[in-house]
Amino acid sequence: MNGKKLLTLVVVAVVLIGLAFLSQRRRDTGRDVARRIGTPVLADLQDADSLNSVARITIASPGSTVEVARVDGTWVAKGKYGYPAKFEDVREFAIALANLKVGQTLAVSDSRLRRLGLLAPGDPRADEEDDAGAKVTLADEQGRLLAELIVGSEFRGAEDDESPMAGFGGMAQGRYVFVNGEAMIVSELFRSLPQRDQDWLDDDLVHVAGSDIAEIALARPDADPVVLRRPEDGDSLTLDPMPDGMEMDSGKVSGLSGLLSYLRFSDIADPALSDEETGLDQPAVYAVETRDGVRYVVRVGAKAGDTDDRYARLSAEWTGEPAPAVAEPDEPVAETDEDEGDEPDESKREAEEARRKKQAEIEALNERWSAWTYVLPSHKVRHVLTERDEL
Predict the structure, then answer these.
(1) How far is CA 75 from each of CA 85, 147, 381, rounded to the nearest angstrom?
(2) What burial class does residue 322 get, using C-beta atoms within 10 Å of its C-beta: 0-12 exposed, 13-18 middle, 19+ buried?
(3) The pLDDT of residue 11
(4) Which of 127, 113, 92 is nearest to 177 (CA)?
C-alpha cells in the first residue's frame, strides 16, 4: 500500500470517527432533552421553605411594573399605597410558578427570542414592544433573588413546526418562557398575569342584598333629603312620605337598593389628597339601614380624574340592641330569674351570639375602611345623585 492510499484511509477514518462522535452526541443530547421534559422549570422553588420565603413578587412588562410584598405578615400592593392584596391570588400565582414543568426546550437565537416575546423589557435587541415579555422576579425579605423568568407569547401549536406539541389548530396550548438562558414551552397559560397594580388588590368592599334593606336615606348639600322605607317585610321600598296618586319607579328604586350589592372599588385614592380635592368636604351621603340592625354609610365626593367614577368613604355602625358582654372565666355569672335547674333559653343565646358576630364584622369593616378613600365605579354611585322627583 503506497503512502497516498494510506493517507486517504486515514482521512476517511477520521471523518467516520467524527461522524460517529457527532451521532453519539446528538443521541446523548436527545436523551438529555427527553429527560428534561416534565421536570420543574424553577428548581429553586421546589421545597416548602423556599416557597414560603417568597416575600416580594415583581412583574415588569413593557410600560409597567407591578409589585406585591409581604409587610408585617400581610401582602400589599406597593404601587397602591400599601393597600392589601388578594392573598389567595398571590398564593396561587406563586404555586403556579413552582408547578411549572418543561414541555419542550427550544434552540435560542436573537430573532427567535424577539419572535416569541422572550426578550426582557428594556432589552436593546427589542425592536418593538411585542418583542419583550413580562419579567417575573421573586425575592425574599432580604431582597435575595429566589427565582426569575420571562413570560413570553402564547404557544399556539403552529409557531414551531418541530414541536411535538403542535397540531392543535392554532389554539393556545401554553406559553413560551425564558429561564437561565434557556427557552422552553410550558402548559401554563398565564391568562391572569397581573399587568396593573389594581389586578392584585382585594377590591371586595361589602355585600348587602336589596331585600335586607329597611330604609334608604339620601342627603346632598344642593338638594332636599330623600327617604325610602319598607313598611313591612316583603313590601317594596317607597318614599316617606309617599305623594298621593303617585307610583314608584321600580328601576330607580332597584338601582338605589342595589348600590351595596357586591360593591367593589375601581381604584384606591392617593391618601395625600385633601377632602377639598376629593370633594368629600361636602359629600352626597347614602345611608342604608338593614333589617338586622346595621347602618351603612357611603359618602360620595367628586369625580376621580377624567372618569365618571367618584371618590368615596365608607363606614358602618350597629343600631340594634347591643349584645351582652361575655363573662371572663373568673367573673361571677349574673343571677337570672330562671329557676335553678332550668335549661338556658337556646334561642336567646343564639340571638346574642349572632349579635356579637355581627358587631365583630362591623368593627372589622370599619378597621379596614377607615384608612382609605376609595374610587367607586360610576354605574354604582350615580344612584346617590338621584332626585326625589325621579323616584
Answers:
(1) 5, 19, 29
(2) exposed
(3) 46
(4) 113
121: its cell numbers: 423589557
pLDDT of residue 191: 83
Q: How, if at all, do strands 64-71 and 74-77 pair?
A: antiparallel
Cα–Cα distance between 167 and 176 in angstroms, integer?
A: 16
Q: What is the mean pLDDT of each run of 10 residues along the chain (391 residues)?
A: 52 46 44 69 87 93 91 92 92 92 90 91 83 92 93 77 50 89 91 86 92 90 87 79 74 85 95 96 94 93 94 92 60 52 69 85 92 95 81 71
pTM of the predicted model as reported, rounded to 2 decimal places: 0.76
The sign of the CA dihedral 79, 197, 382, 218 is negative
Q: Sign (positive/negative) of CA torsion 369, 372, 373, 374?
A: negative
How many whole angstroms separate alpha carbon 254 and alpha carbon 359?
A: 27
Query: Cis link prior to 231 (omega < 30° from 0)?
Result: no
Contact yes or no for 300/227 (Cβ under 8 A)? no
Q: Which three cell numbers stand for residue 133?
A: 415579555
pLDDT at 292: 86
pLDDT at 19: 46
pLDDT, residue 311, reads 97
Q: Going by C-beta distance under 8 Å and a sequence separation of 6 or more, which residues neighbour residue 295?
A: 287, 288, 289, 316, 317, 318, 319
DSSP for 209-225?
A: -GGGEEEEEEEETTEEE
Closest CA to 184 of 288, 268, 240, 112: 112
Question: Under 8 Å CB-to-CB from 312, ≥6 apart: which residues?
Answer: 280, 283, 298, 299, 300, 301, 373, 374, 375, 376, 381
